[in-house]
Amino acid sequence: MSEMSIKVTIAGRIYPITVKADEEEKVREAARRVDENLKLLQNSYAVKDKQDLLAMTALQMATKSAENNAKQELATSEAELERIERIIDSML
Asked: Which domain holds residue 30?
């Protein structure tokens, strides 16, 4: 898989990164979402320090990711329990 160099802008700074070609759009979208969330926080709170805004954005996104992972694990567990229940029912 080929790699490519791209530049993304977050908090007014340009970051050159190397990504796989098929991940380019995901990375650009992620950078856009980070920058968008940072601007929302900046407009909502009296915080002006970019580092504080980036830390708050990272915390929000990590929390949301953890919640999504927990939901996915629960759904997987429920599906596995249903599969086991069907097996048991078929044996009765």
From this structure: 3-91
Q: Which residues pair with 8 in a beta bridge?
A: 15
Structural domains counted in the chain: 1
Amino acid identity, position 21: A
- Sign of CA pseudo-dihedral 49, 55, 59, 65: positive
Neighbour tally for 53: CB within 10 Å: 19
Residue pLDDT, tens place only, 72-83: 898 899 888 898
Q: What is the pTM of this model?
A: 0.71
State the burial class of residue 57 (Cβ atoms within 10 Å of its Cβ: 0-12, 13-18, 19+).
buried
- Longest CA–CA span in the chain (Å) reads 66
